[in-house]
Write a structure and sequence with these properties.
Blueprint lengths: L7 E6 L6 H10 L3 E5 L5 H18 L4 E5 L14 E4 L4 E5 L9 E3 L3 H6 L5 E4 L4 E9 L2 E8 L1 E4 L4 E2 L12 H13 L3 E4 L5 H11 L4 E6 L2 H5 L1 H6 L3 E5 H7 L5 H15 L3 E4 L14 H13 L3 E4 L1 H4 L4 H16 L2 H9 L8 H15 L2 E7 L4 H8 L6 E5 L2 H6 L6 E5 L7 H14 L8 E7 L8 E8 L12
């Protein structure tokens, strides 16, 4: 199944989309990656969904990526004697470690690390920022606050501390158990929630130990401040605008999104734009015009993927939501302005031989009548670097490793094909590339393709050959590089 777009679509699975028929329909509508939200459900439920995705993959003959999104250390208040209270602007309110049910004057905040990091003048946000409190004085086990923006606060509502880097690992005990389960199950990507510093990512990478790629969710101001360091140790990034828009003024989010997307593009690492992209489709069969424009903006910026959350997990119209995203992507990418914007924002990166090879492949493809760029890749790096170039022609990644093929499903413009033949000579590599290009419907025997590979074969990071070749079954070479 050939996608007629470069953007990838991530669909979150949930109660509205956990059957074979629904997951198959989501894939056929355009989903390239399926997200399992580890904040909900249990391991057995996730195991069943994982098995269904792999069955769809087998039945359709196309690699599908699975992303396990870890919950992270969600901070919540305690419970109230009456279930909820209403706080008024100007009143005093206290958070403390006392586990007694709360009332209109106080409630438990069972996170001593918050009190250890707080200082007078800091802000506490409750219930996704609907309530705002200012710390007046604090200690090791309490924080006396003044309510600035009031409202109802009820049992176990989330608490955000936007101005403080908390001494918390991004991995709770639940996350550690979920990470090990997901890696053993065989997911392709792990999404790490509430990242604050690069050490958070390094901890997750050590636990994953190469079994899954690690994607950092940027949803805290601290992560924005040290983004370059976080990106350096991450395999990918998610711009998680929900919590980011709670902890920062909402007008700050669009320029941050644009900067993060462009930085990821320069690094050749995939970036997902997520949260509330088509939220009205939870209950409506059509999105708002503003939501369509939001998706289009991410595409014009060059994001690798856009993501559906509750729209596909719990909404009434999950398949329609994916199909709408697919239609928006195809329309935007057919707009001449799209190529103008993408190419104007391209930064030439030529630090290694591989950088030079993929850059040359794009230039050759765009200046001649080349139909496809075919990349042989072991780890996926060469294909990712080619996607960084955002070429005008399709990218076909050929790899003997199913894990690599699945992970590349998240990258812009890459179509993945498994190579079953043992490739130990460049001539065979070109033959396989020609077969894949024809099988994909991207080229005919009369067309030419660009092939990149590394010799010796099956060694990551050795991309050093580029050849323009006819897309024929039988090829004759004057010489055959070993």
């Amino acid at each position: 199944m050939k996608r007629s777009r470069n953007l990838k679509i991530v669909a979150t699975l949930g109660p509205a989309s956990n059957s074979y028929d629904r997951i198959r329909a989501l894939f056929e509508a355009g989903a390239d990656v399926f997200r399992m939200n580890m904040s909900h459900g249990d391991h057995e439920g996730h195991r069943a969904v994982h098995g269904i995705i792999r069955q769809v993959e087998k039945d359709t003959g196309r690699p599908i990526a699975i992303l396990a999104d870890l919950q992270g250390p969600k901070l919540r208040c305690g419970v109230f004697a009456d279930g909820k209270v209403k706080l008024k602007p100007g009143q005093a309110f206290r958070f403390d470690l006392d586990d007694a049910p709360g009332d209109a004057s106080r409630v438990q905040l069972p996170h001593p690390e918050i009190f250890a990091a707080l200082e007078p003048g800091e802000t506490l946000l409750v219930n996704d920022g609907k309530l705002r409190l200012r710390v007046r004085d604090c200690g090791a086990d309490y924080a006396n606050c003044e309510v600035e923006v009031g409202g109802k606060i009820s049992d176990r509502k989330g608490v955000n501390v936007p101005g403080v880097v908390l001494p918390l690992s991004a991995l709770s005990e639940k996350d550690r158990a979920d990470l090990e389960f997901a890696c053993t199950l065989g997911v392709d990507w792990l999404a790490l929630s509430f990242v604050q510093r690069p050490e958070d990512v390094e901890e997750a990478r050590a636990l994953a130990d190469g079994r899954a790629a690690v994607l950092s969710k940027i949803e805290k101001p601290a992560a924005v401040k040290c983004f370059d360091d976080i990106l350096a140790v991450s395999d990918g990034i998610m711009v998680a605008r929900g919590d980011l828009g709670v902890e920062l003024p909402v007008q700050n989010v669009p320029p941050i999104q644009k900067r993060l997307v462009h930085t990821c593009r320069r690094a050749g690492k995939p970036v997902i734009v997520a949260t509330q992209m088509m939220e009205s489709m939870i209950s409506s069969p059509v999105p708002t015009r503003a939501e369509v424009s939001d998706v289009a903006t991410a595409i014009y910026e060059g994001a690798d993927a856009v993501m559906l959350s509750a729209e596909s997990a719990a909404g009434k119209y999950p398949v329609e939501a994916v199909a709408t995203m697919d239609a928006v992507a195809r329309e935007v990418e057919s707009d001449p302005t799209y190529r103008t914007v993408i190419e104007a924002s391209r930064r030439i990166e030529r630090h290694t031989v591989a950088d030079g090879i993929v850059s040359a492949a794009r230039e050759i493809a765009e200046s001649t009548d080349i139909k496809v760029i075919c990349c042989f890749t072991q780890s996926g790096t060469t294909a990712a670097l080619t996607a960084r170039e955002r070429p005008r022609v399709p990218i076909v990644a050929l790899t003997p490793l199913i894990g690599t093929a699945r992970r590349l499903c998240l990258h812009w413009g890459i179509s993945c094909h498994l190579v079953t033949d043992v490739v130990d000579r460049f001539k065979m590599a070109v033959v396989n590339a020609a077969r894949a290009a024809r099988a994909s419907g991207l080229a005919s025997e009369e067309d030419q393709i660009v092939v990149t590979a590394g010799v010796p074969f099956n060694v990551p990071g050795t991309t050093n050959i580029l050849r323009v070749a006819p897309c024929r079954e039988k090829l004759i070479f004057a010489s055959d590089p070993e």
